[in-house]
Structure formats: C-alpha cells, structure tokens
Design brief:
The complex is a heterodimer of chains A (155) and B (185). With 155 residues, chain A is mainly α. Chain A has one domain. Chain A contains six helices and no strands. The relative contact order of chain A is 0.11. In chain B, strands 1-2 form a two-stranded antiparallel sheet. Chain B contains eight helices and two strands. Helix content of chain B is 63%, strand content 5%. Chain B has 185 residues and is mainly alpha-helical. Chain B is globular and about 60 Å long. The chains are: A mainly alpha (155), B mainly alpha (185). Chains A and B meet through helix 1, helix 2, helix 3, helix 4 and helix 5 of A and helix 2, helix 3, helix 4, helix 5 and strand 2 of B.
Amino acid sequence: MESQHEHHPLFMPLVFVGGLIFGFGLGFSHMAQPEVVLNFLQFADFGLLFVMFGAAVVTGITFFGVKRLRSEAPLTGVTYTRRLKTLDRNVIFGGGIFGIGWGLSGICPGAAYASLGVGNVVILYGIAGMFVGAYLQGVWRSSLADRGAAASSAD
Amino acid sequence: MAATGLFVAVITDLFPNGISHYAIGGLLVGLGTVVIYLGTGIPAGASTFLESTLSYVSDQSRFQQYRASRDWRVVFTLGIVLGAAIYALTFQSGLVSSGLQPGATTGELREIGGVTIWLTEVQPWRLFLGGILIGIGTRLGKGCTSGHGVCGVGSASSASFVGVATFLFVAIGTAQLVYALGVSP
C-alpha cells in the first residue's frame, strides 16, 4: 500500500530525519551499549524502563491524538491507524525466541544499528546473526507457505 | 527528612547511573517515530528491515511482501546509524557535555582521530548466537523492542502487550541464567 504513496519528494528525507532522531536517542540513552541492557535484565539498573515507556508514551499520545486533527498523513495519504497485530501463538513463540536472544546478547535490532553508529564494529557479529536468523525463518516460512499453496491448489 | 532520604537511597539503588539520559533518550526515540508517523502514517519498527533488505538478494516468497517498503526501511536504518554517529561525534567525543548525559559507563572507549568510539566487551559468540535468535524471534513474533515495545504499546495493542511481556520475562530469565553460569561480559 505504501509503494504508491512514496513518490512525495519529502517522503525519504522525512524517514531519514526520523531515523536520525531515533538513532541519536538510542545513543544518548546508552541503549547502543549491550552491557547496559544486560545490567537492566540482571536488575542492576532499571533505566531501560524509562527509555521504552518514555518512547511509548510519546507515540501513544501522538497515535491517539492526531486522529482528532486530521484523518490522513500529508505525504502519503495513508489513513492514520494504530499498530495492531493479530495475537496468536506466533507472538508468544517468537517473543520467547527473541527474549532468549535479547537476554543472551543484550542487543535488539534498532539498538544494534545505533551501536554500529557509535563505533562499535564488534556489533557486526550481532547484525550478521540477525540476518542469518531472519533468513532461516524466511526459508522455513516460505516453504510452509508454498506447501500450503500447493495443497490448496490440489484440492 | 527520613522519607526523603529513603527515597533518594532507593532511586540511587535502582538507577545507579541516574535517570536523565534514559528519559531524554526515550523521548527522542519516541519523537523519531512520531516524525515519521505524522508525515507518512507509518508506525515504523526496526526489525522488518532484516527481511525487507533480504528481498534484494533472495527470492524466497516470504521476503517478497516487503519489497514495497524495502527502500525506505534502508533509509530509516541509515538514519539510525548516522543519528547514533552524531551522538558519538558530540557527547561521546566530549565536543558537547551535559550533566544530563553521564557518558559511557561500560565497554571500552577508544579515540581515533579526535573521535571517540565505543566498543562492547560482550563476547562475539553471544552477539552472533543472540543475533540469530533475534532474527528468528522478532520476525516470527511480529516485532521487536521498537515495533511492539514502542509503536505497539503506544497503540495499546493487546498483541504487543503480550509480545513485550513475553520477551521481557524470557530475556530476564535468560540473562540471569547466563550470569549465574559465570558468563561475563
């Protein structure tokens, strides 16, 4: 749906500026340091709660408030909606697998990209791992989908 | 007086490095998300970049659904990397300093040509193995700390509340277990 709307000349610059602020915030909050995340998970420093919920409060006020002012986004014409996903077993299994990885390494996707930005080249091990993991699940789920399609066309 | 002293003691205990940089950083992460959302209507998360970028090099059917968004997701991720680099060039390198920003408390700082870079001491095998699980888990579980934790929780989405609770509790258990086994850093 987004592809038809991306032609606005300000679309890419705006996404870039949003990413800049997002990444600066991750650096400023020390989330680009896996050790700080591990300290949180080991109950040595609860500061991470301020980062995640501080960010969620800002997005929450915006997501719920903007709809009172206008119905669609100026650059894309996309209707303002909340980010809602279907709650199913995948959310729990996937969340559990992500949790093991997060607890083992102290990294998550956004913070890992930011970590590269603060000069932490060692994080490339983590980013490489993420691509390997995303690829493995892609191969697995592609074969599930292809088998599903083959079965339904055979019916 | 005693109550104030107790309050300060609890705060110092729970937040040994202070609160300001966490709170300000969190507000900026939210602001970055909001800038994109207000302009485009897209509540952006960071983990979809992995699959959308794989669509450039792999023809697996799973990745093709992200072809339409892959270009802007690359731009978003480059923005994150450069935004953090601006932090490194300013606060981390000491060009700008503030009492609200205590500077790195972990890892290793190294100066290269006037720029201070920060390096983790977490072992590469932990990063790589953790990364693989993150790559599988965030994609299967429909989001990560930004997609579920920031955009989803901000949307009051029940799937995201469940997702965040699940990965938070499992991560705490895992980190405690790894630490108890003597793996550090």
